[in-house]
Amino acid sequence: MSTAQAHVTAEEIAQLNKPRRDAKYWGGAIAGILGIAFIIIYCILPFYWMIVSSLRQPTDGRSTEFLPNPASLENYVAVFAPQNQFGTAILNSVIVSTTTTLLTLVFGILAAYALARLRFAAKGIVLSIIIACSMFPGITLVIPLFKLFSGNYPGFEFINWMNTYQALIIPVLSFGLPLCVWNLTAFFRQLPVELEQAAMVDGCTPGQAFVKVILPLAAPGVFTTAIITFIAVWNDYMIALQFGTKPEMYTAIVAVSKFTGAYGFDTPWGTIMAAGVMITVPLLVAVLIFQRRIVAGLTAGGVK
């Protein structure tokens, strides 16, 4: 057999081994691409429409054009009109969301670590009760909490927390903690106990082993829980509306629902959309900054 014949034979063999891309293959590939495109458009289109609506002139709030003509920043200026008190509302949202997230992490990390490491009877029942607490409809708790925080509950008249930060933080904390404990308990269980034992052999106390060894390894799970909690608190409307009734205690979400606008008595659609953009952007920035941490927290194992 000549060299040319051997070369041709090798090419023929490679061609035979090459997977065939028939109509069924291309049909599946096209369907997958179309599905991905549909999901992307479905997720992006509402945000795109919000941006476009915010860039229209205040008199064009009901326009259905896909591009603002002409583009204007007047709606963003109107967001900060004195009657809207939007700057104060943003500050309230930052305070409530950050404080709630920090408290959730502090209590949730300690509780999750104890549930993951300690052995005691009915541990499964305790975890079930914790996760069950997050399943109660929030609206069912509004009336008793309102009665408690307004100082009308017998024996707790000294609690008069309406229009205070604690009234906005504590109820939401009770919803965020179960999710935090449940997620971090599963994450701590994946971390081998031998890591702590090795640290204690090297002279660490149990607390030092937890802070210096376990907590850094659990950082992806902690970041994921923190982002989820922060977003949930930032977007909370029901609790903030019920217990922050004064304009100076409005959070950003509540303030947007109360907008009267700076242009007449019509519903200020453009101003509301501009405020929505300003509320959403910090969440997008946070997710983009910590996206690797979030993905690692959802997929990472215990041993690295």
Model description:
The protein is mostly helical. It folds into two domains: 22-75, no CATH class; 85-258, MetI-like (MetI-like fold, Orthogonal Bundle), CATH 1.10.3720. Helix content is 69%, strand content 0%. The chain contains 14 helices and no strands. It has helices at residues 3-17, 23-54, 74-79, 86-117, 123-133, 139-149, 165-190, 194-201, 206-217, 219-234, 238-243, 252-257, 269-289, 291-299. 28% of the residues are buried. Residues 1-6 have low confidence and may be disordered.
Cα-based radius of gyration, to the nearest Å: 27 Å
Beta-strand content bin: under 5%
For the sheet with most strands, the description reads: none
Write down the CATH topology of the largest domain. MetI-like fold
**How many individual β-strands?**
0
Number of helices: 14
Query: So, the CATH homologous superfamily of the largest domain?
Result: MetI-like
General form: flat
Helices and strands, in order, run as: HHHHHHHHHHHHHH
Structural class designation: mainly alpha
Number of domains: 2
Assembly state? single chain
Give the terminus-to-terminus CA distance. 54 Å
CATH class of the largest domain: Mainly Alpha
User: What is the mean predicted local confidence, pLDDT?
Assistant: 82
Assigned CATH architecture of the largest domain: Orthogonal Bundle
Quick rundown:
The protein has 304 residues and is mainly alpha-helical. It has helices at 3-17, 23-54, 74-79, 86-117, 123-133, 139-149, 165-190, 194-201, 206-217, 219-234, 238-243, 252-257, 269-289, 291-299.
